């Protein structure tokens, strides 16, 4: 009887967990897309072709992105997402998301000019990420490193900064 | 109805003010409508801008589900006092963050379709934030427009403008009225006065040369015509009344004057009957009868002359005459009366054989009249100065007496017909009141004047006749042989009298016989004709108006018959008009005499037969 009850509860609990999981990767995918709308690439004033987001070690986020991106565009440029593996060239990407599960997440993060590095690994900012997802009070939020942005040669909108959980290297 | 009946002054005022009011209302409504629209549009533009700013400011917060930041962003609106509520919705239309000033405001739970909505003094706006072709958020704003306060201000200003404009319009129309309704009111007041007081001497005041001036002129001309016509009618009526009164007086006087001589005549006849044997008494009685009959004849002659003159049928027969003869006959006519009143008549007469071209009979009548008046109105033992002279070619004659005189106010009326200076019953003198009128007309027919003068009552009176251009050259022409009064000496003439008036015929025959003539009488035309054939008369006195056969027919037959073809035919009738004379002459008459017969003329006719 108890087992049956537990089973029942387990059945009940499972979808909830799945939902919470789904919410997080969905959010991250949506945020990645929206970051693009708040970030400028002054070094590529007249860039053409698709804006491409590379995803490393987070297949669920990649899948979500590939679901929401088709049909969307930023300043007339379509947006695409593709998987990136360790050692792949990061050239041609405007943004790369390095998931917590990727081996690169624990090491020093790549510093390619014009590339915005986003990661949800702990201490990502310390290791050179431009934007880092964090969880606070059960919510997905993000932190921004202006130093990294400057180093990469991208400009982040103050509006985005205004909703960031933390901004590093802010000039007073 | 009330408006139609009200005065022009009110109407023009109402028109001026009404027009101004309508213009102001239309103007005011148009202005307010434009202002409301413009104000709303400006307000909406402002609100949209605000919504766009909010949308942009909260875009990141919505994008990253940061309600706190969105709330903070919305708090910016606290600087805008007119915005009472605001909200942002996420891309799915769910309420994301809200801001309410004061509280108690309800916000839509989901984003609605874009657009704005005015409700009273409030406006709500749903503004979609579109980025990269998709609605990333919606902003909802609700605010006070302040339109009512603004409208209040506008209405206040418009009210002031209304009052001012109406005041100016009132003043302006009042001024215009003084130029339009003022003159109209003058004309209307004049018309009203005329109608109410029946005073046609009222005139409308003309104050302008426009149509109203023409109206005033027209009214005035009509009034002038009316006034003149009424005055003329009144004068004519007055004149008629006066004439009527005079006529009544005249008829009364006439009756009196005609009856007056009858009493002494009848008395004399009685006297003659009673004292047949006393020749002295008979002679006195005859003298009375003769005088009274003469008086009556003169009265009737005057009346006939008046009638002829008023009907324009009196024509003068101007011929050569001796002035002295004319004057003498007049003097002789009044001599008995003058003597009776012991008057001294001083005559200053022209020399004998002074020829003048006048109607001797008429001029003598004038002198007789003037002298007779002088005699009548003189006191006993008074004096009359009678001067007749030629001054150059002009005849000047004056009769002045020392009698009762004439009051200055009466002098002018003396010459009016039927006028008598003394209307009292106690008046001492008789007369019809036609003498002076008749005399003046007769003198005027001669082209002369007759003027009267008196220094007042009791101071006597003087009447002067002036007839220009009457003198003729003296000719060595012997005086007319047939002078009145030349009595035929011998030989009786055969005379036939035919008249149905037996009394007249008999007395006339007796008169002729007493003058030594052979007179026979017949009383109708038929027997007259047969008698004439037998008698072969030299003269026939023939009445015109007879029963059976009238005088004209008798005359024609007498002329046709050889026995009487050459006898002298004298018409004796009461009809003395020129037409009657013409008819008589046509029927073969030689002479025409009017009853009663003048003995002198009878003698002259007799003398002419003798001459032949």
Task: Describe the structure in your own words.
The complex is a heterodimer of chains A (172) and B (612). With 172 residues, chain A is an alpha/beta fold. In chain A, 34% of the residues lie in helices and 25% in strands. In chain A, the strands form two sheets. Chain A has an eight-stranded mixed beta sheet with strand order 3-4-2-5-6-7-8-10. A two-stranded antiparallel ribbon of chain A has the order 1-9. In chain A, strand 7 and strand 8 form a beta hairpin. In chain B, strand 11 and strand 12 form a beta hairpin. Chain B has a five-stranded antiparallel beta sheet with strand order 2-1-5-4-3. A five-stranded mixed beta sheet of chain B has the order 7-9-10-12-11. Chain B is built from 16 helices and 17 strands. At the A-B interface, helix 1, strand 3, strand 8 and helix 4 of A face helix 2 of B.
Detail the topology: elements first, then pairings.
The complex is a heterodimer of chains A (172) and B (612).
Chain A: H1 2-38, E1 39-40, E2 51-56, H2 59-68, E3 73-74, E4 77-83, E5 95-98, E6 116-119, E7 131-136, E8 139-145, H3 146-152, E9 155-156, H4 158-162, E10 166-168
Parallel strand pairs in A: 2-4, 2-5, 5-6, 6-7, 8-10
Antiparallel strand pairs in A: 1-9, 3-4, 7-8
Chain B: H1 2-5, H2 8-63, H3 67-75, E1 83-89, E2 95-100, E3 115-119, E4 122-131, E5 134-144, H4 147-179, H5 181-197, H6 211-274, H7 279-310, E6 319-322, H8 323-340, E7 344-348, E8 355-358, H9 360-376, E9 383-391, E10 394-401, H10 408-411, H11 435-445, E11 449-454, E12 461-467, E13 494-498, H12 502-514, E14 518-522, H13 525-535, E15 539-543, H14 551-560, E16 568-573, H15 578-587, E17 591-594, H16 599-611
Parallel strand pairs in B: 7-9, 13-14, 13-15, 15-16, 16-17
Antiparallel strand pairs in B: 1-2, 1-5, 3-4, 4-5, 6-8, 9-10, 10-12, 11-12
Helix pairs in contact in B: 2-3, 2-4, 5-6, 6-7, 8-9, 9-11, 13-14
